[in-house]
């Protein structure tokens, strides 16, 4: 039996500057129910082409037939996927990676760090938190983007806040945008709250991940409490 399964492109909508919400229908394939943990990723390819890795941006759903992705218009494969018409077929493998261990975060304060398209792996974590908000302590999202128009899921941020997630957005290159919020990188905004007993989930470029881990270590968060999705 082939490891690759055929899925159908069902939607694509602009998400932010250079980012697109992109949805696959996996109905009728063995992939239904295979997405077990938020933060997992899959290999996608055009039929017979070279594959690439993409995080699933929607939460696990036992009977769900839609997988959402956040595609960055950068590189040959993402660009090719973004130019497919709705109804086109792509090939996809089963989800890979450990994802983020929600069970370890229960009863603890949860720190979420995402930069750019890295929010795609953190968004399903937030969906799981919102389903059982009482099961977690303080939940804070540190969300970084290059410019004010580079934040994906902007229309969801207020709902996340309303459901008890503290959201801190910071821009590294505000330029002449008139941005009034935080500036700089996410790791610069940890504040003064006690972090020793928190759990952290981190997704973003390698240098951002390393800097966040270094800051957390300085603040007393053990490496065993910091999780990446790979």
TrEMBL record:
It holds the Pfam family NAD_binding_1. Residues 2-102 form the FAD-binding FR-type domain. Transmembrane segments: none annotated. InterPro entries: Cyt_c3_hydrogenase_gsu, FAD-bd_FR_type, Flavoprot_Pyr_Nucl_cyt_Rdtase, FNR_nucleotide-bd, OxRdtase_FAD/NAD-bd, Riboflavin_synthase-like_b-brl. GO terms for biological process: pyrimidine nucleotide biosynthetic process. One of its GO terms (molecular function) is oxidoreductase activity. SUPFAM superfamilies: Ferredoxin reductase-like, C-terminal NADP-linked domain, Riboflavin synthase domain-like. It comes from the Bacteria. This is NAD-binding oxidoreductase.
């Amino acid at each position: 039996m082939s490891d690759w399964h055929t899925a159908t492109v069902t939607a694509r909508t602009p998400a932010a500057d250079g980012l697109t919400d992109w949805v696959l229908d996996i109905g009728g394939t063995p992939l239904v129910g295979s997405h077990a943990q938020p933060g997992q990723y899959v290999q996608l390819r055009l039929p017979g082409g070279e594959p690439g890795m993409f995080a699933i941006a929607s939460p696990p759903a036992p009977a769900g037939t839609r997988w959402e992705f956040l595609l960055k218009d950068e590189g040959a494969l993402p660009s090719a996927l973004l130019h497919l018409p709705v109804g086109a077929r792509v090939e996809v493998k089963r989800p890979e990676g450990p994802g983020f261990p929600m069970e370890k975060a229960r009863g603890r304060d949860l720190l979420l760090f995402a930069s750019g398209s890295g929010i795609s792996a953190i968004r399903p974590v937030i969906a799981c938190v919102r389903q059982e908000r009482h099961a977690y302590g303080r939940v804070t999202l540190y969300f970084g983007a290059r410019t004010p128009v580079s934040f994906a899921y902007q229309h969801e941020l207020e709902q996340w806040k309303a459901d008890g997630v503290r959201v801190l957005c910071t821009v590294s290159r505000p330029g002449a945008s008139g941005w009034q919020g935080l500036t700089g990188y996410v790791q610069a905004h940890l504040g003064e709250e006690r972090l020793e007993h928190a759990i952290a989930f981190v997704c973003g470029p390698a240098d951002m991940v390393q800097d966040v881990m270094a800051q957390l270590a300085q603040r007393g968060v053990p490496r065993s409490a910091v999780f990446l999705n790979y």
